[in-house]
Specification:
With about 500 residues, the chain is of the alpha/beta class. Helices cover about 45% and strands about 10% of the residues. The chain has 20 helices and 13 strands. The strands form five sheets. Strands 1-2-3-4 form a four-stranded mixed β-sheet. It is elongated, with a radius of gyration of 32 Å. The model has no long low-confidence stretch (mean pLDDT about 90).
């Protein structure tokens, strides 16, 4: 692709970065990286009632965590505040910045002067009344003010007004979509959209057209929930005499039940996945596969591979289904590629919030021991907490293991044997406990399981003998004794 590429991700700061929005950001970023283009972050905050600075910060933070660093756009200063001017020659990158508002007024006036837009004095109450009178067949705005006589317009001059775009009423608008192909819309079915609100600010549909032109955007890649807006935007580009960018509309993400992805299917925002303990490279990799595939059907991508593999031709037209189990599997795969030192560093935020104290020196060998069992960074404190704090016994494990007939005698014997052990190493512990089981003519599981639950409170965990070595002799014997006192009452 030899042409200059400039794409933008333009979130509305009315909520956190939804996982669908994160995928849109990712596809734009990949497209720019693949073809040597520029990736722009623009904040579309025309919804003044719901847009908040806090939400802008959250969106920027989520994009940064995902590694989707932008070439131009808003950015966070050292003191944590958002720089409205941003970085790049096309700023400011917030639509409600005063300089941008002047652009919208200028081009709305141009459309008025050329007869391609008109003043609308209809109040909300009047619009509602006319829609009600028209019945079910009513389609959007009825064009009332478009056909007003000059004397009627003059009579309204002192009233508050909005400005509407005069949509052509004949023929068709063809949207050239790089994903779906040409999509045709009958102009008679498209309404005259408001481009400037009564309060003077621009509407989303008009502001994004002006900004895409002024920021020299070549490709608009966004969710297909925006497809219905596109013919009106195409006509605005044409009315202003501007080149129309190429559009690409991404199919929606569905949950496993085939319905639009929502909170009921699990975490809904990028920040939630970070807080659950997912790695950013996992989320990037998984989102890339939601609606895109390469010819090799590759699933796991190393650093930099997605950027060189991505192509717009591989983007699918049908909705993708979000599979939490696959995402969890993928995160485990990425974690297994990390060194214990890397996992410790990444898990620090979760370890520091855990209700136990640890040192790096003490926990690092434990991470090594459990390395292949971590699926999430939050698993690190969850799987290792019993090494550093009192055992919290799982009721199911207690009933299934510690309260069974004969277990107290087994634990009493193990307690006695281990108390006399002078060499506390993994090989010696294994040799001693296996010899005990053989001497008592017991299957190994009959001994191993009660010991594991007694010292850890759970039925799964690290390799038994390595676990015992790291816990230390005093702690192991004390826990076995305590388990006997609590669950059999037989300990002396």
């Amino acid at each position: 692709m030899s042409e200059k590429i400039r794409v933008r991700f333009a979130p509305s700061p009315t909520g956190s970065l939804h996982i669908g929005g994160a995928r849109t950001a990712l596809f734009n970023w990949l497209f720019a990286k693949r073809y040597g283009g520029k990736y722009i972050l623009r904040i579309e905050d025309t919804d003044e009632l719901r847009s908040t600075p806090e939400t802008v910060d959250q969106i920027l933070d989520s994009l940064s965590w995902l590694g989707l660093h932008w070439d131009e756009g808003s950015f966070v200063k050292d003191d944590g505040s958002v720089n409205l001017a941003g970085k790049g020659a096309y700023g400011p990158y917030h639509q409600m910045a005063s300089e941008r508002r002047e652009y919208y007024k200028k081009y709305a006036q141009q459309l008025l002067d050329e007869g391609k837009a008109y003043y609308c004095w209809c109040t909300k109450e009047e619009l509602d009344a006319r829609r009600k009178a028209a019945g079910p067949q009513a389609r959007g705005y009825d064009g009332h003010c478009r056909s007003l006589a000059d004397d009627a317009k003059k009579a309204n001059e002192e009233k508050p007004f909005s400005i509407r775009f005069a949509m052509p009423k004949e023929g068709e608008t063809i949207v050239e979509d790089v994903i779906h192909g040409n999509v045709e819309f009958e102009n008679t079915l498209l309404q005259d959209l408001v481009i400037q609100k009564t309060a003077g600010g621009p509407t989303y549909n008009f502001a994004c057209v002006v900004d895409d032109h002024l920021m020299d955007v070549t490709h608009v890649i966004r969710g297909d929930d925006h497809l219905s807006n596109t013919p009106s935007q195409v006509q605005m580009f044409l009315a202003l005499g501007w080149a129309v960018p190429k559009f690409g509309h991404l199919a929606m993400i569905h949950g496993p039940d085939g319905k639009k992805l929502s909170k009921r299917h699990g975490a809904a925002s990028a920040a939630e996945y970070r807080d659950l303990g997912y790695l950013p490279e996992t989320v990037r990799n998984y989102l890339a596969l939601l609606g895109w595939s390469n010819s090799e059907s590759q699933q796991i991508f190393a650093e930099g591979e997605l950027e060189t593999s991505f192509s717009i031709e591989g983007v699918q037209k049908s909705p993708a289904r979000f599979d939490q189990e696959k995402l969890l599997w993928m995160n485990g795969e990425y974690l297994r590629k990390k060194t214990p030192e890397q996992i410790l560093s990444l898990a620090k935020p979760f370890l520091d919030k855990a209700d136990f104290e640890y040192t790096d020196e003490a926990i690092l060998p434990l991470i090594l021991m459990e390395h292949d069992k971590f699926h999430l960074l939050t698993d690190v404190p969850k799987r290792l907490d019993f090494f550093f704090k009192d055992v919290e016994y799982d009721e199911k494990s207690v009933n299934k293991v510690l309260k069974k007939d004969g277990v107290d005698a087994i634990l009493a014997g193990i307690e006695s044997v281990l108390a006399g052990l002078s060499e506390w190493t993994e090989p010696k512990l294994e040799e001693t406990i296996r010899a005990f089981a053989a001497d008592k003519d017991l299957k190994m599981g009959k001994v191993f399981h009660p010991v594991r639950v007694a010292v850890s409170g759970r039925t799964d965990g690290p390799t038994l003998f390595g676990m015992l070595e790291h816990l230390g002799k005093d702690k192991v014997i004390a826990r076995i004794h305590n388990a006997r006192e609590r669950f059999s009452g037989a300990a002396a």
